[in-house]
Amino acid sequence: MITGKTKTLAVIGNPVAHSLSPVFQNAAIEAAGLDYIYTAFPVTDGKLEAAINGMRAMEISGLNVTIPHKERVMKYLDSIDKDAEILGAVNTIVNKDGVLTGYNTDVKGFVGGMKEKGFEPKGKKAVLLGAGGAARAIIWGLIQEGVASLTIGVRNVPKVRPLVEYFSKYMEITLLDWSTAEFETALEKAELLINATPLGMCPYVETMPPVNWDKVPKGILAYDIIYTPAETLFLKTAREHGCETLNGEAMLVGQGAESMRLWTGIEPDTEVMKKALRQALEERK
Ligand code: NAP
Predict the structure, then answer these.
(1) Helix (H, G, I), strand (E, B) or coil at 269
(2) Which of 22, 146, 175, 191 is an S-S bond match for 122, by CB 3.0 to 4.6 Å?
(3) What is the arithmetic mean of pLDDT over 72-98?
């Protein structure tokens, strides 16, 4: 029952009404019997500082932060965790006795998805397709997990060069145009192939990044961070080629579960969260 003592959690962003976080976070809250609610607050660009002041004033326990505020919100917080500092983006704010700390749980969400599947990235040769907003957490996750090599294939190399240079202080990264023979050579050695482009996401389900599947070793893990549809053309083709496959559901739920751990200290039931997510996605069809 919601009472005067119930603590508030929420996601802020713009737009935010489509967010699935309230669905799976409330499922986790209910399963754990916590006296919290999780809602969504639309916050337009000019209102971000006021929203964070409101969090302080109303003692909101925690927030998830989504597009377009993940970078700009940092300046309104009291401290920033290491992952968030390195990524330059916060997706979780914890309010502990009035002190606001920013975290980034996307890294744990991405890595946790693979580990749940039984895949150990340490020492593996990773190939990443696309390098936009989501790729920063993926690159940092792969570096921290100790992959043996990381090759990034993109359509526009000059655009991605600054990002690769930024992370090159932690690990040597090869950046290639994905239409070149050199990239095909990298594909031949891949042990983990990740799609971090929106190609294949609903409603554009007939597309996928230009992978020459003849070069991809059978049996490797193909990881698509898209979760709508559950099986993208990239994953379907990978499965038919003989690869293990993983979609973006575990990453989405995993980042939310890590936020819940930070806010409440509990170990959330990720199976309950995934079930709620799947049901909500089904209802949207
Ligand atoms: P993004 O910044 O828009 O783009 C990612 C990359 O894809 C960029 O390298 C971009 O290249 C490339 N790309 C985009 N459209 C393309 C096209 N038509 N042809 C070739 N390359 C194209 O996207 P993002 O924010 O990183 O998100 C990528 C995907 O991940 C989305 O589908 C998103 O829903 C999903 N995602 C999932 C999770 C999760 O928790 N599972 C979390 C975050 C994101 P250019 O820079 O050249 O455009």
Answers:
(1) coil
(2) 146
(3) 97
